[in-house]
Structures are given as C-alpha cells and as structure tokens.
Amino acid sequence: MKKVLSVLLALCLLVGAAPMFALAADDDFVIEDGVLVEYNGPGGDVVIPNGVKSIGVETFWGNKDIISVTLPKSMESSGIFRGCENLEKIALHDSLKRLDYYAFTGCFSLKEIVIPESVTEIGWDVFENCKKLKTIVIPKNVKVINPTTFAGCSGLTAIYLPAGLEKISYGATSGCTSLKDVCSATRFLRKADRINEKK
Fold this sequence. Notes:
18% helix, 199 residues
C-alpha cells in the first residue's frame, strides 16, 4: 500500500511540475499588449513567439549572443536588431510590410536575408555596416531606397532593384566598395554613386 501511495505521489508531483517546464521557454520573452519588450534568453537561434506584433526599440539592441532570428506571421514590421554583431541570418515572414529604421545597422555578421515581396517600405540605415552581406533583392513594391540604407556594406557585390523603383537617395550606397552588379533602375544607382564620389 505504501508503495502504491509513493508511486501516486510521484506521479502527482510530475504532473504538477509539467506546466513549469512548458512555461520555461516562455520566460525568455516579456510580452505586453503584443509588444516584445524584453528578451531574457540565452541567444543562439531565437524564434519570436506567434502573436507578437512588434518589438521594442531596445529589446535586442546590442545583443551579441543572437545567431539567427525567426519572426512570426503576426509581425508586420521587422523590429530593430541594431548592434547584434553576431547575427548571421534572419527569417522574415511573407506578411511583413516594412523594415524598420536601423533594423540591422551594425549587424556585422549578417550574411543573407530574403526580403518578402510583401514589403513596401525600407527605412533609413537598415543595412548600414552589414559588412558580410553579399547580395540583396529589393521587392517589387518598394519605390524608394532611403539615405544610408547600404552605407558601409563593404562586402556587398550586387543589388537587384525592382523596375518600379523611383529613387535611390543620397548616400544610399556610400562605402559599398565591392559593389559591381546592379540590375534594373541602374540610372538611379549610378546617379547616387556619382553623388557619393563627390562627398
């Protein structure tokens, strides 16, 4: 009888502890009204929980432990990962509408990013000093490349621009010393480069 009671007690303890284990991963994220305001996780490969609509400006700013990030379908903007020096890859969902200002500024290790066709707006300084970024394709509905979007991307060799692009702003490609291949809307890029050379 004592053995039976011991087994039952052990089972009750295990069942009672189960929710604690299930909530452990959730403790990595502090979410308030759909806004991810704090990240307490160990870094590495970070998967933002579904239901998060936006990310606080300083939530990931300067986090050197993050290697990759996956954004959920619930987010319409990229969030800001400025200064995440070891971030190599970010997966953007096809529901995304815009890349926020300074989204990946100073992400020195960012090697690749696929911008969904749903994106219509790319903010200022988005890829500034992403030195390992090699190529990038701008979605068809983006009309303007803002100032210093690619400034300091010394490893960038190719930018693929949409036919409907209307403007590449002053300084957008400043410091892109390896840039060789530009497809479509080249007259705008050449004009921007001439301005940068005079700077």
